[in-house]
Amino acid sequence: QLAKAIALKLSADNLWKMYEATQVDLETGNTERLPELHAVSCCLKAVSTGDAATGVEVCRLACGGHGYLSSTNFLNLYGSATAAVTYEGENTVLYLQTARYLVKVWNQALKGQQLMPTVRYLEQYATKPAKRFAWSDSTPVIIEAFQAVTANRLRLANDHIQQRVKAGRTPQEATNETGLELVHLAEIHCRGFILQSAYAAIEQACQTASQPLGEVLREICRLVVYDEALRITGDLLRFTTMSDPDLVELQRKYEAALGAIRPNAVSIVDAFDYPDFILGSTLGAYDGNVYERLFEDAMKSPLNQESVNRTFELYLKPLMRGKL
Question: So what family is this one in (predicted)?
Answer without folding.
Answer: Belongs to the acyl-CoA oxidase family.
